[in-house]
Design a protein that fits this description.
Pfam families: GFO_IDH_MocA (PF01408), GFO_IDH_MocA_C3 (PF22725). The protein is an alpha/beta fold. It contains 11 helices and 16 strands. The protein has helices at about 15-25, 40-50, 60-65, 80-90, 105-115, 130-140, 170-175, 180, 185-195, 310-325, 335-355, and strands spanning about 5-10, 30-35, 55, 70-75, 95, 120-125, 150-155, 200-205, 235-240, 245-250, 260-270, 275-280, 290, 295, 300, 355-360. The protein starts with 5 loop residues before the first strand and ends with a strand.
């Protein structure tokens, strides 16, 4: 028998939606049948480029298509839950951009919908698929560093507030600032590297020192302050992990620091340590990776090599692979992304209440 063809739709025609479209288009046995977006010219151009039969202004029209097998959601955070739940209730698999939702409550509703429908709910955590993070994961999971007990991870920007005054900086629409936006990537790849320990409690702080003053916007974007700045521009969190481990997270959209963005991770283990620095963040296809170990009482540090990751292409490829493997559907119901959302919720609660908060 020939492999089935999966008919997919994409909601959202911005940068993220275009990444999903390109990734689907590169795969055999995938047909892009529908695209939805409110930018008419972009929608028409993408429809022509990818041969989509249906072009819609509203997501409701797209998820109502009876021939749809799966949908990608690449729109503002406040729309993730309604679109995903509507699609899942119609028996359509879902791949959503991060974060899963604005908060854990919406995330749980999405997971429950996926379980009830017996369909896949996945989230595009593409940074865990970076080649350097995968290589470091092989080293840690292979036991080379012993038991990890302390780790630090961050994504820091100097001037990286996306569109001041847009939905990104509206608390009701976004759910939060950099902690919810890029910090969830840091949380995801850090917990992946540490072997998915349970987060027991968090102590967090958030600050909004630059954004409300229209400082720190991306240099190619003009300030749109009429919409206000209602979220944080910097967050830091101390996470206590099951088994006694510790993880410290930092993330900023705007801070007076080195002008070059940074994604990093460092870990101390009982038999060794490691550091990864991607100077330039997403522009650095492969970061600087070092492993620190002793051998027979002598320093035996080394620098592993890693291949570039494939970002959204790898995410979409894995999503389609799971769609073709029904026995894996139950294990891909959004639960992992929900655990991330619950930790982020606890961080915001801790910052607001100025105390350590247990994670449900």
């Amino acid at each position: 028998m020939s492999d089935p063809t999966f008919r997919v739709g994409v909601v959202g025609v911005g940068w993220a939606g275009q990444q999903h479209l390109a990734a689907y288009d590169a795969l055999p046995h995938v047909e892009i049948v529908a695209i939805a977006g409110q930018e008419a010219d972009t929608l028409a151009a993408l429809g022509e480029k990818y041969g989509a039969q249906h072009l819609f202004e509203s997501w409701e029209q797209l998820v109502d298509l009876p021939e749809l097998d799966a949908v990608s959601i690449a729109v503002p955070n406040f729309l993730h839950a309604p679109i995903a739940i509507a699609a899942l209730e119609r028996g359509v698999h879902v791949l959503s951009e991060k974060p899963l939702a604005r908060n854990g409550t919406e995330g749980r509703q999405m997971v429950e919908a996926a379980r009830s429908a017996g369909r896949v709910l996945d989230v595009a955590f593409n940074h865990r698929l970076r080649g350097d993070i995968q290589k470091l994961g092989e080293i840690i999971h292979g036991g080379e560093l012993g038991r990890p007990y302390y780790a630090k991870a961050s994504w820091m920007r100097r001037r990286g507030i996306p569109k001041i005054g847009s939905w990104f900086t509206n608390r009701e629409m976004a759910g939060g600032g950099p902690l919810a936006d890029i910090g969830v990537h840091v949380l995801d790849y850090a917990l992946f590297l540490l072997g998915e320990p349970k987060v027991e409690s968090v102590s967090a702080v958030t600050y909004a020192e630059l954004g409300p003053r229209d400082i720190g916007g991306m240099k190619w974007e003009t300030a749109q302050s009429k919409g206000g700045f209602e979220v944080e521009d910097f967050a830091s969190a101390f996470l206590r992990l099951e088994g006694g481990g510790t993880l410290v997270l930092e993330t900023s959209w705007a801070a007076f620091r080195n002008p070059t963005d940074l994604i990093d991770f460092s870990v101390l283990g009982t038999e060794g340590g490691a550091e990864l620095k991607a100077i330039g963040a997403t522009k650095a296809q492969v970061g600087d990776l070092h492993v620190y170990r002793d051998h027979d009482g002598e320093i035996a540090d080394y620098q592993p090599t890693a291949e570039p990751g494939r970002a959204h292409a790898a995410v979409v490829e894995n999503f389609v692979r799971v769609l073709g493997t029904p026995e894996e559907w139950a294990g891909n119901d959004g639960s992992l992304a929900l655990r991330r959302a619950e930790v982020i919720d606890a961080c915001y609660r801790s910052a607001a209440e100025k105390r350590e908060v247990a994670v449900a």
